């Protein structure tokens, strides 16, 4: 499977993956979860919306929670561009591609462009947010996982090659990719604009849907403190997977489900940086993954199957591979009686 070559001079300059906008049924319960367990800070709040950020972030928000009486969803996934002039270039590029876009007014953001990619993922592009104080040195406010900053988001896509090609055309580079069996199909792509291996991750699945978004936590101690905080505040069952270590990328992780089922991940710092243009995408297949140092149980079926819908977007169907191994399958094999035993 060939990965599209990087485009070093894209039509407009995206700098990073920056934020997500979620709808929630109980705003107070969601704020409690994200501040006590994940360790975010509330920057602003009104009757139906809260804007939160990590303790290292100076941008006004990286997570927006909006109260709803409908089914919880993700309204937008956010991307930052270099300057507000880049937004005009972005609007022209989307128009040339026949994709919808429009400028909108969004609280606590500068000029903002709403658009959609060819797969239907709703995007929100902006260049500026009000600057606020970092909480990093205010150690009396480091609850739960002490989330530092927004790291990445993962999206289920039926057509991962199409997603990879489109975002490559916007200047994203592929750090790693996963090839499935038996037809060498591209089933996963890890793509970045900042200098770590991932801003956007696309994995094959019914979509587009938001699988999860992630924050960096300072240490494994903070990761375990988040799990302890979940138990202390009656969110113990929200710890869905981990702590563990991913083989692909080698980063330590733990996944939580918030009160509405949205999935959020805490990860440690990326183990390597993507600083040089000669770095080639790393291919991962069954043979390569067999020699990695991942540890922890396989994910439960819900980790594979559940994801957050995008508002107004109907996910396309996807048939999972027959060789997928979920936690339930793994435990069933271990529980089966052995021959001669």
Describe this structure in words.
With 341 residues, this protein is an alpha+beta fold. It has a single domain, classed as 2,3-Dihydroxybiphenyl 1,2-Dioxygenase, domain 1 (Roll), CATH 3.10.180.10. The chain is built from 7 helices and 18 strands. Strand 7 and strand 8 form a beta hairpin. The longest helix has 13 residues. It is globular, with a radius of gyration of 20 Å.
Short description, anyone?
The chain is α+β, with helices and mostly antiparallel strands and 341 residues long. It has seven helices and 18 strands.
Task: Give the arrangement of secondary structure elements.
Elements: E1 14-24, H1 27-38, E2 41-45, E3 49-53, E4 63-67, E5 74-81, H2 85-96, E6 101-104, E7 112-116, E8 122-126, E9 149-157, H3 160-169, E10 173-179, E11 186-192, E12 200-204, E13 209-216, H4 220-232, E14 239-245, E15 252-257, E16 263-267, E17 282-284, H5 286-289, H6 301-305, E18 308-309, H7 327-335
Parallel strand pairs: 1-4, 5-8, 9-12, 10-17, 13-16
Antiparallel strand pairs: 1-5, 2-3, 3-4, 6-7, 7-8, 9-13, 10-11, 11-12, 13-18, 14-15, 15-16
Helix pairs in contact: 1-4
Query: In the residues, how many domains can be counted?
Result: 1
Strand coverage percent: 25-35%
Radius of gyration: 20 Å
The amount of helix comes to 10-25%
Output the number of helix runs.
Answer: 7
Q: Which regions are unreliable across 5 or more consecutive residues at pLDDT < 50?
A: none
């Amino acid at each position: 499977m060939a990965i599209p070559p990087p485009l070093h001079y894209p039509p407009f300059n995206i700098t990073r993956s920056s934020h997500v906008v979620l709808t929630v049924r109980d705003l107070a319960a969601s704020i409690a979860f994200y501040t006590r367990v994940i360790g975010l800070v509330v920057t602003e709040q009104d009757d139906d919306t809260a804007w939160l950020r990590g303790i290292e972030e100076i941008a006004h928000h990286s997570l927006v929670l909006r109260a709803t009486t409908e089914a919880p969803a993700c309204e937008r996934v956010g991307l930052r561009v270099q300057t507000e002039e880049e937004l005009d270039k972005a609007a022209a590029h989307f128009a040339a591609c026949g994709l919808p876009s429009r400028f909108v007014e969004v609280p606590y953001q500068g000029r903002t462009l709403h658009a959609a990619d060819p797969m239907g993922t709703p995007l929100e592009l902006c260049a500026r947010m009000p600057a606020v104080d970092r909480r990093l040195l205010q150690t009396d406010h480091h609850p739960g996982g002490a989330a530092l900053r927004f790291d990445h988001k993962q999206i289920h896509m039926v057509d991962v090659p199409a997603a990879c090609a489109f975002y490559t055309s916007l200047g994203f580079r592929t750090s790693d990719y996963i090839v499935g069996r038996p037809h060498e199909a591209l089933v996963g792509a890890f793509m970045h604009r900042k200098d770590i291996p991932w801003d956007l991750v696309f994995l094959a699945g019914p979509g587009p849907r938001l699988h999860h978004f992630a924050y960096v936590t300072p240490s494994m101690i903070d990761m375990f403190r988040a799990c302890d905080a979940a138990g202390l505040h009656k969110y113990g069952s929200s710890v869905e997977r981990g702590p563990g270590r991913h083989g692909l990328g080698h980063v330590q992780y733990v996944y939580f489900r918030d009160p509405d089922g949205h999935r959020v991940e805490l990860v440690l710092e990326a183990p390597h940086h993507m600083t040089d243009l000669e770095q080639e995408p790393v291919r991962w297949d069954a043979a390569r993954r067999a020699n990695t140092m991942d540890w922890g149980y396989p994910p439960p079926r819900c980790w594979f199957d559940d994801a957050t819908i995008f508002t107004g977007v109907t996910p396309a169907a996807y048939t999972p591979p027959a060789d997928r191994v979920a936690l339930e399958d793994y435990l069933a094999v271990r529980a089966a009686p052995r021959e001669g035993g």
